Amino acid sequence: MSNQENGTAVSGVQFPQTANFTGIFAPSGIEADVPRLEVIGGAVPMDLAGAFFRVAPDPQFPPLAGDDIWFNGDGMVSRFGFGGGTVSLKQRWVRTRKFVAEREAGKALFGAYRNPLTDDPAVAGMVRSTANTNVIVHAGKLLALKEDSPPVWMDPETLETIDPAYTFGGRMTSETFTAHPKIDAQTGEMLAFGYAARGLCTPDMAYYVIDAQGEIVHEAWFELPYYCMMHDFAFTQDYVVFHVVPIVGSWERLHARLPHFGFDRGREVFLGVMPRRGQAADLRWFRAPTCFASHVMNAHNVGSVIHFDVPTAAGNMFPFFPDTEGAPFDPAAAAARMTRWTVDMAANSDEIRMAPLADLVGEFPRIDDRFAGLANRHGWQLVQDATKPVDLPGMRSATGMMMNTLAHIDCTTGETDTWWVGPTSSLQEPAFIPRPGSTTEGDGYLVVIENRLAENASRLLLFAALELGAGPIATLAIPFRIRPGLHGNWAPASALAA
Ligand code: V55
Ligand code: FE
User: Fold this and answer.
1) What EC class is this (predicted)?
2) Ligand nearest to the Cα of 180, by number
3) Which atom from ligand 1 is nearest to the alpha carbon of 57?
C-alpha cells in the first residue's frame, strides 16, 4: 500500500510546492486493496455486479522541469468492484514503459507534456504514454489510454499491466490511439482513431473499427485540415464524426519549449463526417467560425442529417494551453454550454448549424451508453454553478474546474434536474450504470467521486440516474484521498468474465 513496493525505495520524494502539486492536486501515490468500503449513508443495490474503472494522473516522481501540468501525471487506475451490496476498491499505477523506466532510475526521465525534446536521452524513442486519461473494457481487456500512444492492456480483475503498448496483434500501425474510443452497444464494436498517427505533430489520422472479439476489421487514413488536439469524437448508426477545434501544436512550439498546444482563435472549426466503413474519399468536412468543444455527449443521424451534441465554448477552456497570440485567459469565453451541431451530408452547404440544448455551464457529459449513436433522451454532466457559495480558503466561487453540481438533461424538453454537492466539495466525472435486467434508457444509476476539499478526503456516491435532485442513494467512505481524475467507465460482471 505504498509507492515502495517491488523493492525499489522511492525515498525523499519532494514535489514542487506549486498549484499543480499541492492541495487537491497533491500527488497520491497510493496503491491499495480495500475489500469493503464503509457505507455511511443509504445502501448499494444488492444486484449491482461489475466494476467502475477510472483513472487519474498521479505523478510517481517530481517533474524534470520543476513544475508540470496535471495532464502529464502517471496513470493511476481505481477499480470499484460492486457485488452483493458491497463495494471493494483496488488502486494501481499503470506499468507504462515510462513508469517502469523511471522507477528503475528512481527519478523522472520524461520531461514536458508531449515534448520529447525535454526528455533524458536515455529514453529517446520510447513510447511516452502515461495512460492517464481513460480506462475502458472491451473484448475482455481493460485498456488504459493516452491519446499520444497505443493502449495499455491491463487485467480487469487484478489491474496487472499485460502489454504497455498494445497494437491489436500488430494490426494497428497508427502510432497513437484515442483516449475516447466508442463502443456500439448494438454491435459490440469499438470505434476509435489515432491522430498524429504518423508521428508527433503530423496531420495524419487513422480510423479503426474493432469487432466485438477485439479484432481490427476496418481502417481508413486521412489528413486533418490542421494538426490539433483531436481529443474525442462521436458515431451514429451510419457515420463517424470528428470535430477539429483550434488547440494547435507544432515542432516550432516544442523547440521553443512552449506548451505542446496553444489556442489559435484565427482558425475555423471543422466537423468531418464519414460513413462507418468509409474511406478518405467518403469523408466530408463542414465548417464554422472558431469556438472550442472537447467531450461529446452523443450523436445520431436521421437519414443524411447528423446531430452532434457537445458542450461548446466561445474560446479556450484550457489555461495551461495558452492563446497563440498571447491573449489572456478569458473565463467567460471558457464557459461551455450543451450545444447541438447539425450538418447534412445531402446538402450543398458546408455550414455547421449550432443551437443550444441546455443553459448549464459545465463539461464531462455522459449518457446511458447502451444508447450511444442513437437519439438519446437522457444526458448527464458536471456543472459549475457560480451562484452557489464556496466555503474554501482562497476560492470564492465555482469557477475554473470547480465542478460543484451534477445535472441531468432531458434532451427532448431541455429540462434539467440538478444536485449541488455543497460549499466544500467538488465532483469528478460520473458514469452511468444500467440497472441489471433493464433495457429502458436511463433506468439505472450514476456513480461519481466526491472531492471533499476541506478535509482532503474522497467519497463514492451513487444516485438513481433520473432522480438526481433527491440526492445520493448510497454514500461510501474511501479511506484515502483519490486524486482528481479524468474519465472512467462501468463494466458489468458479464464483461469482466469474458
Ligand atoms: C485531455 C486530457 C489529457 C490529454 C489531452 O481534454 C486532453 C482532456 C489527461 O490528459 O493528454
Ligand atoms: Fe477526455
Assistant:
1) oxidoreductase
2) 2
3) 9
Give the pLDDT score at 395: 67
Per-residue model confidence (pLDDT) at position 7: 41
| Ligand 1 neighbour 466 (Cβ under 6 A) | no
Q: Is residue 471 part of a domain?
A: yes
- From ligand 2's centre to the CA of 414, what distance in Å? 24
Give the count of domains, the chain.
1
Q: Taking residues 284-297, what's their average pLDDT?
A: 98
C-alpha 59 to ligand 2 mean position (Å) = 18
Q: How far is the CA of 161 from the centre of ligand 1 (A)?
A: 21
Pocket flag, ligand 1, residue 129 (CB < 6 Å): no
The answer to whether residue 11 sits within a structural domain is no
71: CA distance to ligand 1 center in Å?
6
Any domain includes 9:
no
438 is a domain residue: yes
Pocket lining: 132 vs ligand 1, CB cutoff 6 Å: yes
pLDDT at 498: 58
Planar angle of CA 13, 14, 17, nearest 5 degrees:
155
CATH number, residue 419? 2.130.10.10
pLDDT at 23: 87
Please tell me the predicted confidence (pLDDT) of residue 24: 86
Residue 295 alpha carbon, nearest atom of ligand 1: 6
C-alpha angle with apex 193: 190 to 196, nearest 5 degrees?
Answer: 160
Ligand of minimum distance to the alpha carbon of 293: 1
- Specify the pTM: 0.96
Ligand 2 centroid to Cα of residue 147, in Å, is 9
- Domain span at residue 106 reads 23-497
Q: Is the pLDDT of residue 4 over 60?
A: no
Distance, CA 366 to ligand 1 centroid (Å)?
17
Instruction: Report whether 161 contacts 143 (CB < 8 A).
Output: no
Q: What are 186-197's pLDDT values in tens digits?
A: 999 999 999 999
**Ligand 1: does its nearest atom lie under 6 Å from the Cβ of 72?**
no
Cell numbers at residue 376, please? 438519446
| Ligand 1 contact, 362 CB (< 6 A) | no
Nearest residue to 297 (alpha-carbon basis) of 344, 218, 243, 223: 243
Q: Own/partner pairs for 102-111, CB < 8 Å, 24+ apart?
A: 102/60, 102/61, 103/6, 103/8, 103/10, 103/60, 104/8, 106/8, 106/10, 106/61, 107/61, 108/60, 108/61, 108/62, 108/63, 108/64, 109/64, 110/64, 111/63, 111/64, 111/65
**Grid-cell match 464524426, residue found:** 241
